[in-house]
Write a structure and sequence with these properties.
single chain; 204 residues; mainly alpha; Arc Repressor Mutant, subunit A; three-stranded antiparallel β-sheet; two-stranded parallel sheet; 9% strand
Length: 204
C-alpha cells in the first residue's frame, strides 16, 4: 500500500487516510493488486491490468470501478476513448493504523488487513520464483528473514514505529531515479505465531 506511482499526466496526491468505505473496498486481495499495479506502473486500462493479473478484462473493469467508487483511483478522461478507459492512482499510499482507528472501523479494518496479508503472500510467492535468476548484487542485498521474539504488544508497536521511521528516511532522501536503482518491495510482517494466541469470537 505504500508503493509510489509512476509519473502520469495527473499528479497523485501524497497519501490518504482510509475511511470505513475505502477499507471495505480494499478488503479483496485482487483489488489490492490492481491498485498496486497503478501505483507501481502508472495509468493503465482494464485490458492491460487483466493481462498482468491473468484475469478477464470484465473482472478487471469491475475492480477498477469499485476502486474508483472508493476514491482510490480516478479516470484519465483526456486519455481514454469511447471504448477504452484509462485509470490512475489517486494517492501515493493508503494509510490505516488499527491502533488509532475509531471503533466503528474495527471490522472493516480487520477485513482489509487480512486481504492485504493474502496479497503480500502472493507477491512473495512471485518473488520467490525469480530468486534463482536474480543478479548477484541484488540477490546479495535482498533479505528473506524470520525472527522469533518474546515481546509485549507495546514493544511490538514501538519496534514497528522505529522500522517505519527508517523506511521514511530512505524514501525522503532518494533521488528520483539514481543510476543502478530498481523498485524494491520492502515488506514488514510482525504478528503472533499462528496457533499460540487465544483468539476472540469469529477470529479463528
Amino acid at each position: 500500500m505504500t508503493t509510489p506511482p509512476a509519473p502520469s499526466s495527473g499528479a497523485a496526491r501524497e497519501d490518504v487516510l482510509l475511511g470505513t468505505a475505502a477499507l471495505r473496498v480494499l478488503a479483496h486481495p485482487l483489488r489490492l493488486q490492481v491498485l498496486a499495479i497503478l501505483r507501481r506502473h502508472g495509468p493503465s486500462t482494464a485490458t492491460r491490468v487483466a493481462g498482468e493479473l491473468g484475469i478477464n478484462p470484465s473482472a478487471a473493469s469491475y475492480h477498477l470501478r469499485r476502486l474508483a467508487a472508493g476514491g482510490l483511483i480516478e479516470e484519465e478522461r483526456e486519455r481514454g476513448t469511447g471504448r477504452e478507459r484509462w485509470w490512475r492512482a489517486a494517492h501515493r499510499q493508503s494509510i490505516h493504523d488499527p491502533a488509532t482507528a475509531p471503533p466503528e472501523q474495527r471490522e472493516a479494518g480487520r477485513a482489509c488487513v487480512q486481504a492485504l496479508a493474502l496479497a503480500y503472500a502472493e507477491h512473495l510467492t512471485r518473488a520467490a520464483q525469480e530468486i534463482t535468476r536474480l543478479p548477484d548484487d541484488w540477490f546479495g542485498a535482498s533479505a528473506y528473514s524470520d525472527f522469533l521474539l518474546r515481546i509485549t504488544p507495546q514493544d511490538l508497536a514501538r519496534m514497528r514505529t522505529e522500522i517505519f521511521d527508517v523506511i521514511d528516511r530512505y524514501r525522503g532522501s532518494e533521488p528520483l531515479s539514481p543510476e543502478g536503482s530498481a523498485t524494491v518491495s520492502v515488506q514488514l510482517q510482525a504478528f503472533p505465531v499462528p496457533g499460540t494466541m487465544p483468539l476472540g469470537p469469529g477470529e479463528a
